[in-house]
Amino acid sequence: MPYSPKPVDIGLAYSTSKIGFLIRVMQSWIGDWAIFNHAFIVLYDGEIIEAMTKGARFSRLDDYDPELIIFSQFQLTPDQRDQVCEEAIKMHGTGYSFLDYLAIGLDHFFKDCRWLPNLVRKRVTKTGRMICS
Length: 133
Known about the structure:
Elements: E1 10-13, H1 18-29, E2 38-42, E3 47-50, E4 57-60, E5 69-71, H2 78-90, H3 98-109, H4 116-126
Antiparallel strand pairs: 1-2, 1-5, 2-3, 3-4
């Protein structure tokens, strides 16, 4: 019987889009290649929230091929699930940041540089933007 995701489960999906391909290339570039190149959070009633190039949006879980998704499974109380869903819903419309991928890549290649991780962390947290992972 297939797994039925619960609110707050994280779905990892394989995307065949052009952006998905670019993400796989970037993941490979930093030594983090995986078949799954997109992540989203399951909300309620088959709805998900996902970071997309035009901003975080609500979508339907059934828009994805279930054969191309794996799910995390968190042991949370119903109240905890509600709280996380509320916070995730607030992210709707948040812009996407390709530059964060570049910052993460630089951090990976210059990991012996003491100051770079702090710059990357500041860059990623100050932009107010997101990437799906």
